[in-house]
Write a structure and sequence with these properties.
Strand content: 25-35%
Largest sheet: 7 strands, mixed
Low-confidence stretches: none
Strand order of the largest sheet: 1-2-3-4-5-7-6
Helix content: 25-40%
Structural class: alpha+beta
Number of strands: 7
Mean pLDDT: 95
Order of helices and strands: EHHEEEHEHEE
Radius of gyration: 14 Å
Number of helices: 4
Distance between the termini: 24 Å
Length: about 150
């Protein structure tokens, strides 16, 4: 498996991310959905990675620069057929290492509070993220949980 910086120009990643946004819309009320679409992920403050297994897209994730020392994990997704196969752990380990290499000292994230998101929350806990107050432009939301860790 390879983890590569993705310029988000290919049709496969566009479909993958559209599926992600549609799934989030089906689970979370619109005012609580924070998943970025393709245009939102193409901003200069975002670095986006795809996990490739041969020629197949197996997962993706990104970080968004909030300030010189703080970044946010965004768009973590594993292909439905590859869930619980270690893709998310591999990618999150990579993102943490890259964040440190880029000079960030803190990584934070927002994820859902619903039962659907429990595996994600457990993954983040396993990698040292702890629950925190909303950060950046987020506000308290019963559908969201916020987590952070030192890099």
């Amino acid at each position: 498996m390879r983890i590569v910086v993705d310029d988000l120009s290919g049709p496969e990643i566009a479909r993958f991310l559209d599926d992600h946004v549609q799934e989030m819309r089906s689970i979370t009320p619109p005012e609580s959905k924070h998943a970025l679409d393709l245009d939102g992920l193409r901003k200069p403050e975002i670095t986006f990675w795809s996990v490739m297994d041969g020629g197949t897209l197996a997962g993706c994730g990104a970080i968004k620069r909030l300030d010189a020392g703080h970044a946010e994990v965004k768009s973590m997704r594993t292909a439905p057929t590859r869930k619980r196969s270690g893709i998310a752990s591999l990618l999150l380990k990579h993102i943490i290492a890259e964040a440190k290499r880029m000079g960030f000292t803190r990584l934070s994230l927002e994820t859902g509070a619903a039962e659907f998101f429990l595996p994600a929350r457990k993954l983040y806990e396993k990698f040292g993220f702890s629950y925190c107050e909303p950060f950046a432009d987020y506000r308290p939301d019963p559908h969201s949980v916020f987590m952070t860790r030192v890099v």
